[in-house]
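FORM 12-B: Structure-to-Sequence Request
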């Protein structure tokens, strides 16, 4: 589904090149559930952003369904990202002024849909993540675990093939972390959603089908 060949990524600070990814080869198949582990600063988020089409590699080949995407324009990339990929982050990134329901509807604003259709789809996902009764709460009126559920519903609302979760349990206690993991595992099992989870937690990683480790800019 997604294949990276010899991906390099450097940041340039004050004219100085800092290589972060140094020849990453990575393949994700339909239905995978992969944990990505590695020390702080090893490039996990950088790699997730590249996998998620949020950032460009400095060099290397990115293929989506066997098609190389290097030549795509940024609006084509945005369209692909919107259709294929859902993101979940450690700090949830919900908009504070919007209700849970409105936050989940957000990704649908770019689609050709009526407000009623958006609402219906958003409600379906909120029910799926167990947030049926809290749809009119704002993020500040929800616990961390509840906010992450809303963020997962938002990631799911466009029916993405892939969920990229960057330390989704990093801000949660052990019990709430497990609930969020159970939700992700359930999605992977019931719907075949392909999932990549960045985690520092061996216990979280051990629940994934595969574990990939990054060290010094390379996968091991
Ligand atoms: N926009 C940027 N500009 C310059 N350097 C950056 C930028 N983003 C990341 N870096 C550097 O790239 C390296 C990898 O960062 P990255 O965020 O990918 O690490 P990480 O593995 O996700 O770490 P953590 O576990 O702490 O989240 C770090 O040294 C970081 O300072
Ligand atoms: Mg990170």
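FORM 12-B RESPONSE
SEQUENCE OUT:
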């Amino acid at each position: 589904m997604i294949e990276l060949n010899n991906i390099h990524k450097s940041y340039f600070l004050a004219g100085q090149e800092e290589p972060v990814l140094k020849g990453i080869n990575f393949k994700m198949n339909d239905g995978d559930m992969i944990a990505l582990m590695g020390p702080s600063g090893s490039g996990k988020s950088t790699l997730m952003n590249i996998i998620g089409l949020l950032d460009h590699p400095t060099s290397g080949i990115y293929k989506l369904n066997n098609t190389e995407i290097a030549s795509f324009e940024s609006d084509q990339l945005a369209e692909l990202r919107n259709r294929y990929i859902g993101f979940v982050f450690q700090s949830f990134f919900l908009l504070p002024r919007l209700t849970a329901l409105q936050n989940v509807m957000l990704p649908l604003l770019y689609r050709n849909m009526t407000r009623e259709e958006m609402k219906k789809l958003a409600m379906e996902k909120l029910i799926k993540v167990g947030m049926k009764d809290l749809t009119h709460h704002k993020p500040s009126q929800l616990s961390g675990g509840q906010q992450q559920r809303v963020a997962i519903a938002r990631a799911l609302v466009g029916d993405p093939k892939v969920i990229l979760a960057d330390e989704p349990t990093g801000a949660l206690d052990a019990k709430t972390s497990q609930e969020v993991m159970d939700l992700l595992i359930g999605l992977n099992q019931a719907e075949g959603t392909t999932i990549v989870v960045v985690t520092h937690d061996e216990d979280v990683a051990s629940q994934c089908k595969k574990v990939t480790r990054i060290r010094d800019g390379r996968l091991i």
